Amino acid sequence: MRRTAENKLKVVAVRVDPQFEQRLRLLAEVTGRKQSFFLQQMIENGIAAMEETWLPPDVLEQVKSGALPPLQQDRTATADLFGDQDDE
């Protein structure tokens, strides 16, 4: 599939525990693949379970039907991106 402006991959930054980073690095080194490949696989294979757990039923139904709801504009995308907030 050729990438266009509409389907261009996006960059997301995330902080992880050093133990997980080491495991990811080992997985990449041993297999000859990039760390980003494995992160992409984890996201693609795990996002449905996260949606089932965390999204309200009406929003989940929109996601499942392919009609993604618009993102709330008042949220800042970087508010917790590099903050020192602990995950709940």
TrEMBL record:
GO terms for biological process: regulation of DNA-templated transcription. Residues 66-88 are annotated as: Disordered. SUPFAM superfamilies: Ribbon-helix-helix. InterPro entries: Ribbon_hlx_hlx. It comes from the Bacteria. This is RHH-type rel operon transcriptional repressor/antitoxin RelB. It comes from Caballeronia fortuita. The lineage of its organism: Bacteria, Pseudomonadati, Pseudomonadota, Betaproteobacteria, Burkholderiales.
